[in-house]
UniProtKB/TrEMBL annotation:
Disulfide bond in keyword set: no
Keywords: Bacterial flagellum biogenesis, Coiled coil
GO BP term, pick one: bacterial-type flagellum assembly
InterPro entries: FlgN-like, FlgN-like_sf
Species of origin: Pyrinomonas methylaliphatogenes
Protein name (Swiss-Prot/TrEMBL): FlgN protein
Entry keyword Transcription regulation: no
Functional note: Required for the efficient initiation of filament assembly.
Stretches of the chain forming a coiled coil according to its record: 14-73
Family stated for the protein in its record: Belongs to the FlgN family.
Pfam families: FlgN
Length: 147
């Protein structure tokens, strides 16, 4: 009985794992491109990469649901037998993506802090310029023509 379950679903499972692995490889590539765009401070490329990653993320969620359904049909006792090179590669890719994303997140936080500091300096400079331009000006005096 268990062998029939495996044979009935093995091809679908392997196809899903291969497709998931390919999309994870693409996601890792996009994660690296995102980090490079951040280093160059190319925010249009960064936003485009984020959009592409979102699309891939949606597709990966579908794979995840389909894999969960197949595993449920095949039974949890068969799960240890499902470990193959594609499943291992999937785990490896997910870990690489998480590591790259952690680095990118740290760089984004640092950039946000620097930008905040620069905005504060800009605001201070604007106030100083305004004070300088107003210095020495006489304040207008309202005169009553009837007096």
């Amino acid at each position: 009985m268990a062998l029939k379950k495996i044979n009935a679903h093995a091809d679908s499972l392997i196809e899903l794992l291969i497709a998931q692995c390919r999309d994870l490889e693409r996601l890792l590539e996009l994660s690296r491109r995102e980090a490079a765009a951040l280093e160059r401070e190319d925010f249009s490329a960064l936003l485009e990469t984020v959009r592409e990653r979102a699309t891939l993320g949606e597709r990966l969620e579908v794979y995840h649901r389909q894999l969960a359904e197949l595993r449920a049909e095949m039974g949890e006792d068969l799960a240890p037998g499902l470990k193959n090179e594609w499943a291992s590669r999937t785990i490896e890719l997910a870990m690489e993506i998480q590591a790259q994303d952690a680095e990118t997140r740290a760089a984004l936080i640092l950039m946000r802090q620097k930008t905040g500091e620069q905005l504060a300096l800009l605001k201070q400079a604007r106030h100083q310029v305004s004070a300088y331009l107003n210095e020495g000006r006489r304040l207008p005096i309202a005169c009553d023509r009837l007096a």
